[in-house]
Amino acid sequence: MSVLNYDTELTVRRELPRVLIVSGALVMIYMIAHYRSVIDCTLATLPAIFGIVCLLAYMRLSGQRLNMINLVAFPLLIGIDVDYGIFVVSAARRGALRGLSDEQIAEKLAPASSAVILCAATTFIGFGTLVFTSVPAVRSLGAAVSVGVATCAAATFLLVAPTLVWLTRRAERKEAATA
Q: Which CATH number fits domain 2-172: 3.30.420.10, 1.20.1640.10, 1.10.8.10, 3.90.550.10?
């Protein structure tokens, strides 16, 4: 049985990069077509990328091994987590943040922020309940998705939102310098 487990883990490790590249590339292509901006696309996918990196770090630090079930977490997280960045980037672009104070920017982003928090919390709770099952592979899926979703939500507020504000302020400074 240990030989079978070893072979399965080896196969899953070999497939992980392909799964990440294919699912990530398809999402990026769609988002570039939607946004028509590489910067907006990159900002929207940044939380998902951060969540995947944190998940890999968590798995490494906790000694959790890849299996066929938690392999599913990676493309699942790309599909779930990209929403959080999309909500905030789209709200920022619709809200035209230029010329607004920090408080006004926070007001413009508040509905999207509420949506991110609600989506992340319900997904975290839903998949988090899998941690309490008696099947180890399913438990690992629950832990993987929960860690990925939590870190993605954090990245949305700690990386994407400040970057959007910074980009807005930078554009304002450029306009003022040329005027």
A: 1.20.1640.10
